[in-house]
Amino acid sequence: MPELLQLPPELLERIVEFVAISVPTVGDDPYDYEEENKYKAINDPAFSSWSRPYNKFAVTPRPDVSSLQSLRLTSRHFSHAWATHLYRCVRLMPNQGSASRYNKILATPSLAQLTKLVVCPTLTHVEMVFSIQCVGPSGFDDGNYPEDVEFREEVLSAFYAGLNHPKHPAAKVYDLGIKNLQDLTPQVLMDSAEDKDTGFNKDFQQVMSRITHFSLQVATEDNEHSPEIELHVPEIHDFFGHELETYWLAPIADNLVYLKLYTSEMPFGMYPKCNLPKLPKLRKLLLGNLSIVNDDLIDWILSHAATLEELTLDAAIIAVGAEFIEQSVDIANRRVNYLPLRIEEGRPCYRPQPQAYTEQRWFWSTRWHHIFNRFQHGLPHLKHFAFGHGNRGENASFDEAEALTCELEDGRYQFYDEGTGPCNWLDLDRHNTVNDHRLKDEDNVVYQPECDEEDWQALKDLLHELEKPR
What PANTHER family does the annotation carry (predicted)? Predict the structure, then answer.
């Protein structure tokens, strides 16, 4: 211990930081890079992202409280270092005990000034976490959803009201996170211009106008009995096709330098279609559960070439093909056709265009090595790239997005089939056919892409490029 305490203060601080936030190690990853040389790529890069620390400007992850408390007992010399991390994030729960403990922190000046993640004069980061389970007005409700639409809206209203308190506004907050926001924007946030200066809407507009870092995970409804019909819930299409862009992102587009956008489970991008605004100052982008079936979303990412420095794609899927039986599609451009936006009972409706029962299928020849190559040559300021599959088993990928490394999975290519359940997304069989007998006809066999080596080499080339001085 005496030798340890003789280290420079900067090194001691780094030790405490790594204890405070446990970054996954290579051994924790299900993919071993020594074995993954099956892709036969040469001149492997250093993969410095393995030890990449979490971005301090991200709302999550939260400190490892138990480790910090243990560290406190080792030596008084660590007191200030562990306190900085331990009290930086205070989780305030809706009960008297939690409120009393927080009041004690606020009553201790040396601790109160360390707190950054709850409402106080020094607050810069804030996060609201809802239940991952939700149900909408047209969904399946079996009574097991603890947070209904009304409850969520009331909590959101109180949340923004607290941040925009008339006497003590959280004026320094620039980093906002909402985990498991239901895919149903509160009606009051979509009201006409003359209503925007009242209550919830006013608080929302003023708080969001100060945000430069926005982390959002969208919760969608589950139907345990028939998961394949979840995409028939209309609110999903309204939100990703219109509300997300119009009410959440476009108003703050000119300010955003950091965007983390995830769904709790459902792939978004192809279906439901996702429309996103241009973000002229964007420097860091993290997307989780993205589905790609044409160049639209790739072109959108590349449109930020002048500013983008870091890019993470978590559980991203290329749809090598898709089959629809009840929705109208543009086969040539690989898009689902949507009806013109309309207003029903005061809410915007952006819905797929239905058609008579007819099988319509398309295929897409673009592979990940094509996209990696476009990133390598089309994002001149890129310094960091992560591509893989986060911790979906514990629904922790949103929290751990900053620690994602690079890996390749067979699931990066899938086929979408509207008529198949319980999941519409089908993993492709290594024996050259999709796992669905209806698609095994002589003209339209869906193959597992045989491009592992090309994908792996293109990924290595991209990472090598990022290691060069810029």
Answer: F-BOX DOMAIN PROTEIN (AFU_ORTHOLOGUE AFUA_4G00200) (PTHR42057), F-BOX DOMAIN PROTEIN (AFU_ORTHOLOGUE AFUA_4G00200)-RELATED (PTHR42057:SF2)
* CA dist., res. 202 & res. 223, Å (int): 35
Q: For 291-325, b where at least 16 C-beta lie within 10 A, e where not — what string?
A: bbbbbbbbebbbebeeebbbbbbbbbbbbbbbbbe
> Residue 268 and residue 366: Cα distance in Å, rounded?
18
In the chain, what percentage of residues exceed pLDDT 70?
Answer: 72
pLDDT at 39 exceeding the cut of 90: no
Q: Rounded to an integer, what distance in angstroms lies between the CA atom of residue 271 and that of residue 260?
A: 20
CB atoms within 10 A of CB 54: 18
What residues does each domain of the chain span? 31-59+117-320+362-409+449-467
Contact residues for 153 (Cβ-Cβ < 8 A; gap 6+): 186, 188, 200
Residue partners of 50: CB distance under 8 A and separation at least 6: 25, 26, 405
One DSSP character per residue, 146-194 reads SS-HHHHHHHHHHHHHHHT-SSS--TT--EEEEEEEESS--GGGG--GG
Q: Cα(175)–Cα(54) distance, rounded to whole angstroms?
A: 15
DSSP 353: P
| DSSP letter assigned to residue 327 | B
Token couple for 452: 């592992």
Q: What is the pLDDT of residue 421?
A: 75
pTM of the model: 0.79
Q: Are strands 317-324 and 291-292 parallel, antiparallel or unpaired?
A: parallel
